[in-house]
Design goal:
Elements: H1 2-14, H2 21-30, H3 38-49, E1 56-57, E2 62-63, E3 68-69, H4 94-111, H5 127-132
Antiparallel strand pairs: 1-2, 2-3
Bound molecules: 2-acetamido-2-deoxy-beta-D-glucopyranose.
Length: 139
């Protein structure tokens, strides 16, 4: 019994968090992303990480739900967001969202569209496509 309990704690603790699309949409809203951007963000995160907070791409060194790059934004490596890449792998999305807003603002300034920081954005740029990712959600 004790062993089973321990095992289940271990599994719970190490298991990755894969969000549902609506759960994710609500959290992104709550953590401060603008309502009119939520569909696009849900589409982008699906394409970047399949909503899996633990996603790591070892060839691009990108971390978490939004696949934030270690080269510029999280530490070690770059640290423009003042956050550890490892912190971007947990279930708490506040630090991810803070960094995403910073990246977005930087690309908005440089390229005129903040979403262009994400390679997957073109596949989410069509509003109908983006909206289909949250069409079953009450937000
Ligand atoms: C990982 O990053 C590389 C380089 O950007 C990219 O080509 C590849 O599609 C990424 N892999 C996944 C699973 O997203």
């Amino acid at each position: 019994m004790k062993i089973i309990l321990l095992l289940s704690v271990f599994v719970t603790y190490t298991h990755c968090k894969v969000f549902g699309n609506c759960e994710l949409a609500r959290q992104l809203l709550n953590f401060g992303l603008p309502r009119h951007q939520i569909a696009t963000w849900v589409c982008i995160t699906f394409k970047e990480s399949s909503y899996n907070t633990r996603a790591i791409n070892y060839s691009s060194n990108c971390y978490g739900l939004f696949q934030i790059s270690q080269e510029y934004w999280c530490s070690p490596g770059g640290n423009a967001c003042n956050v550890a890449c490892s912190s971007l792998l947990d279930d708490n999305l506040q630090d991810d969202v803070n960094c995403v807003r910073q990246i977005y603002n930087e690309f908005q300034r440089i390229k005129g569209n903040g979403f262009l920081a994400w390679e997957t954005y073109p596949a989410c740029a069509n509003p109908n496509t983006a909206n289909s990712y949250i069409s079953n959600c009450y937000l």
